[in-house]
Amino acid sequence: MTSLRHDQVTALMRAAAADLIAPRFRRLQQGDAIEKAPGEWVTVVDREVEARLTPALRALVPGSRVVGEEQCAATPELLDQLDDGVVWLVDPLDGTNNFIAGREPLSSMVALLEGGETVAAWMLDPLSGVMHHAERGQGAWRDGERVHAPEGAGLRRAVVKTRFLPEDHKARVAASAGVEVLPGVNCAGAEYPAVAAGGFDAVLYWRTLAWDHAPGTLFVTEAGGHAARLDGTPYRAGDRRPGLLVARSRAVWDTAAAAWG
User: Fold this and answer.
1) Is 93 annotated as a binding residue?
2) What would the DSSP string read from start to end of 16-81?
3) What is the pLDDT of residue 38?
4) What are phi and psi of 170, to 5 degrees?
5) CA distances, 42 to each of 34, 74, 102 (Å)
6) Average pLDDT over residues 176-203
7) 142 - beta bridge partners?
8) pLDDT value for 3
9) Is the pLDDT of residue 114 over 70?
10) Domain boundaries of the chain, sorted by first residue
11) How far apart are CA 96 and CA 91, in angstroms?
12) Is 94 annotated as a binding residue?
């Protein structure tokens, strides 16, 4: 991943945010949002951003493919091919329900996979313009400043996504003494940077959709944190098993996994 390509991806994402996302924030019209599945919404903005980014990203790496969230809604079998070749993963607008409600945070996310491994990631706040990005083996960055996750073993403040969480795991979380458990902000593209910045000690996800987690897991690990399945195995975008624990340090991860795994 060259710095030139990083700059190109950043420029593409910033242009899409400025042209398509920011102007429609709190300005959606009747019919601009539809429920594609129970509790799962999509807007015309999600589709427009994905349509804008898809050919532009493909052109950056000859022979690469683009797999977007909205493409997968129509063609789920695209997720069966994430381990093959060079793939761009696109979440055009993470936090769609927030967007519809006219609240923040929001994120536009891209990850680059090579042979199923995430090698680069971008998470852009389309309203503030803050960009978080990471490259495998090269670190994590916030608007050009290196990010280092806080060390230490304390598990005091954590986000737990309970919507899909099995009852036995919910019971273990509820039994955690001394841990403030929060529902999160409905935007993985904001939650992962918050872990790396020390805003949360850990986040427990059950559903592990590739476009939601490939960018953030690379970012947190490159910042010095730890992300893995509850059984300790590494996260891979093409692995659709549920359960993913993310923490600002390996010590915090071990503490949370022992309590909640």
Assistant:
1) yes
2) HIIIIIGGGTT-PPTTSEEEEETTEEEEHHHHHHHHHHHHHHHHHSTT-EEEEHHHHHH-GGGGGG
3) 82
4) -60, -40
5) 6, 12, 14
6) 96
7) 132, 145
8) 54
9) yes
10) 3-146, 157-260
11) 10
12) yes
List CB contacts of 125: < 8 A, sequence separation 6 or more: 105, 106, 107, 131, 189, 190
Residue 118, beta-bridge partner list: 113
Range from 149-153, 242-246, 256-260 carrying the lowest mean pLDDT: 149-153
CB-CB contact of 62 with 160 (8 Å): no
Q: Is 124 annotated as ligand-binding?
A: no
Q: What is the overall mean pLDDT for the chain? A: 94
The CATH number of domain 157-260, selected from 3.40.430.10, 3.90.580.10, 3.60.130.10, 3.40.190.80: 3.40.190.80
> What is the rounded end-to-end Cα distance, in angstroms, of the chain?
35
CATH class of domain segment(s) 3-146: alpha beta
- Mean pLDDT across 187-216: 97
Q: To 10 degrees, what angle do helices 210-222 and 188-197 make?
A: 10
Q: Can you tell me which residue has the tokens 């090269």? A: 138
DSSP character string of 126-193: TTT--EEEEETTTEEEETTEE----------EEEE--SS--HHHHHHHHT-TT-EEE---S-HHHHHH
pLDDT tier, 206 (very low <50, low <70, confident <90, very high otherwise): very high
Q: Is 91 annotated as a binding residue?
A: yes
CA–CA distance, 6 with 26 (Å, rounded to integer): 30
Rounded to a whole number of angstroms, the CA Rg of the chain reads: 17
Q: What is the pTM of this model?
A: 0.96
The verdict on whether residue 135 carries a ligand-binding annotation is no
C-alpha torsion angle, residues 207, 158, 172, 170 (rounded to 10):
-40
